[in-house]
């Protein structure tokens, strides 16, 4: 029995490794292109460290796939990058991307660690989680040094213990709204930053996409992320709190030459959407005010519909690699 549990790779092991491999190969080629143009030596160092980390991870995952007797996914390759393409984003946006990328890594690795069955997979994600924590801290401190880090607004420091008595605690549409809770402010700021970054990157992708269909897809995503940023910022303004983030479109160059394939860019946006839906749902569960829950539900529905459009594009063009799946028992008996 012990030998079975030691050597058998389960659905949880294979599927998390497969998802991580796909996303890490996107990061790998993003770092490679960024390093062709970066000028700031501090940002260059963190880009190089990130690339080295991701390449080690990819190699380790390939060894785990071989051990599991499972084919190594194609992921993304040299076919998906044009190293001769001009710069599309500024150094500042490179750093902001790395910082936000660590949020995705922390979410992905912690979830994968919690569901891993095989010891080698468990050890792999435990090691990765430690590395992602270190990279997150390094990127945050570098943003502070470069004066581009936006802090969350201040709230009063309570000196006494109190309990909720006002029945308006959960109201939002009718009656007087209570001020935002600290956790609600935190989530609104977080989503503002994510949408500001998404708006800038999708704006760049819309300039360089080769297919008109993909261009229109990115243009729609640019408008959605811009609208979501306005929603979160306006809620903060109701309590006279500062903006959660600023538009970073000025960090996008005027290049119209694609550094990445349409397949890579659409997949990147699809991953961004999936992460947003998950984060919105968590924020909705932690926001007792009814109006905020309704806003999150509405925004989730909008990005969910947009995600569906992206999946249709990937499937229609033959760009969506088949993820690991259970056996089709009906086919096996025919």
TrEMBL record:
Keywords on record: Coiled coil
Coiled-coil spans in chain: 125-152
Name recorded for this polypeptide: DUF3231 family protein
Gene3D superfamilies linked: 1.20.1260.10
Annotated InterPro entries: DUF3231 (IPR021617), Ferritin-like (IPR012347)
Pfam families: DUF3231
Upper classification of the organism: Bacteria, Bacillati, Bacillota, Bacilli, Bacillales
Species per Swiss-Prot/TrEMBL record: Virgibacillus chiguensis
